[in-house]
Amino acid sequence: MAISTIGASALDSGVSQLGKNLIQNGSFVVAQRGTSFTGLGTAAAYTLDRWKVDINNSPQARVTITQDTDVPSGQGFASSLKIDVTTAESAAAAGETFHVFQNIEAQNLQLLAYNTASAKTMALSFWFKSPKSGTHCVTIDNQDGGSTYIREFTVASADTWEKHSVTFPGDTAAGINNDNGTGLTLIFPLINGTTYQGTANTWTGSGTQWSTSNQQNLLDNTANNIYITGVQLEVGSVATDFEHEDYGTTLQKCLRYFRAISQVSNEDVTVASGHIYQTSRAWLVSYFPVRMRIKPSISFTGTTTDTLIRHAATGSTGAATPSVQKEGTTSIAFLVDAAFGTPFTVGQACELEITQGSNNSAYFFSAEL
Questions:
Q1: What's the number of domains the chain is made of?
Q2: How far is CA 203 from CA 112, 139, 168, 239, in A?
Q3: Burial level of 91, CB count in 10 A (0-12/13-18/19+)?
Q4: What is the distance between the alpha carbons of residues 335 and 112, in angstroms, rounded to a whole number?
Q5: Percent of the chain having pLDDT more than 70?
Q6: What is the pTM of this model?
Q7: What does the pLDDT read at residue 309?
């Protein structure tokens, strides 16, 4: 029986190039830390998964970032990242910057062949809704190579969803390390002082030039709202249709860098399981659904009264904040050590739980770039 084949040209790009997007959560569907982040502008902070706000030299502007449902019509998007200006900044000082960005893990970028004559061109496409028409910038920062490449794009109509695409030629003079650190950073500047301004359409060696002097000040009015969605960075000189992943695939990618365990649907949630180590101490282990980038840090938000050690079929007692004892990229082990009202039975199995109704409490495991 004859066997026929179908070439990639006969398939839709979204099918024939699965996994083409070097950006993670480009449609902003995953939001493990929450869906609203207020008062941003005093320090760097992660918001929706994999996306971070960064500042330099304490700009006056403050913003709220939310996961929003305002999206371009008919494009298959359900969410966008909304930047709402809450405190305006009329003009940025020379050393002030305020931008939204995503770091990309270096070992995922080896296919670009940077620092060789074969360095690959990348195409960036995204949907953008700006409060201003005119020139805006987007930048690739080669963190390992210490170089940046600025591209300008033009917004035709303010407060209107528009799709933009630009290309970034490969960096033939600076490489990307083959490790689990940051390789490239994709930057959307909101304000950018003269110290950090440079020339478009060329790789520069300073590594701190994130816009041209034509960049709009998008934070100069509290009426300003900026929206972004459909961010895709792919190898090639032509931007293809956005690859809409299923939610589970996008979440799994994000879990390499951050995991949140919180109470949902008014049910107890197990954080870790283990055994009673001493009459007032429990030894517990939590296994990660995917291998994390590095050993994560652990933090708890909420109140310890929202947690409990379940150590018998009918009994439970309040839990203290865990003390990390051993951590790796696949699991983390910690002790819960406190003076409990009822002594534990040594050797008994137990679980650390977040209790029903404690919607403001969560354990965070972070291995972010």
A1: 2
A2: 15, 10, 9, 21
A3: exposed
A4: 44
A5: 89
A6: 0.92
A7: 81
What are the structure tokens assigned to 68, written together?
Answer: 């929003």
Sheet containing 80-87: order of strands: 36-40, 62-68, 80-87, 225-235, 122-129, 162-168
Mean pLDDT within 182-195: 98
Q: What is the pLDDT of residue 4?
A: 39
- Give 313-361 as a DSSP string: SS-EEE-PPPEEEEE-SSEEEEEEE---SS---TT-EEEEEEPTT-TT-
Of the candidates 272, 137, 275, the residue with the CA atom closest to the CA atom of residue 200:
137
Give the pLDDT of residue 290: 95
Does residue 248 sit in the same domain as residue 300? no
User: Residue 208 contacts by C-beta under 8 Å, 6 or more apart in sequence?
Assistant: 148, 195, 196
Q: Is residue 40 part of a domain?
A: yes
Rounded to whole angstroms, how far apart are CA atoms 66 and 31?
A: 9
Domain boundary among 206, 231, 255: 255
CATH number of 311's domain: 2.60.40
Residue 163 half-sphere exposure, CB side, CA atoms within 13 Å?
A: 15
Query: Based on C-alpha coordinates, what's the Rg of the chain?
Result: 23
Lowest mean pLDDT among 148-162, 225-239, 276-290: 276-290
Query: Quick one: pLDDT at residue 299?
Result: 86
**Could you say which DSSP state residue 247 is in?**
H
CA distance linking residue 316 with residue 259, whole number of Å: 26
Helix (H, G, I), strand (E, B) or coil at 250: helix
Residues 62 and 39 sit within 8 Å (Cβ to Cβ): yes
Answer yes or no: are the C-beta atoms of 128 and 164 closer than 8 Å. yes
Are 86 and 295 in contact by the 8 Å Cβ rule? The answer is no
Phi, psi of 207 (to 5 degrees): 75, 5
* Residues 286, 324: Cα–Cα separation, whole Å: 11
Structure token pair of residue 356 = 């029903």
> Quick check: 327 and 333 in contact, CB under 8 A?
yes
User: Which residue segment(s) compose the domain that 203 sits in?
Assistant: 11-255
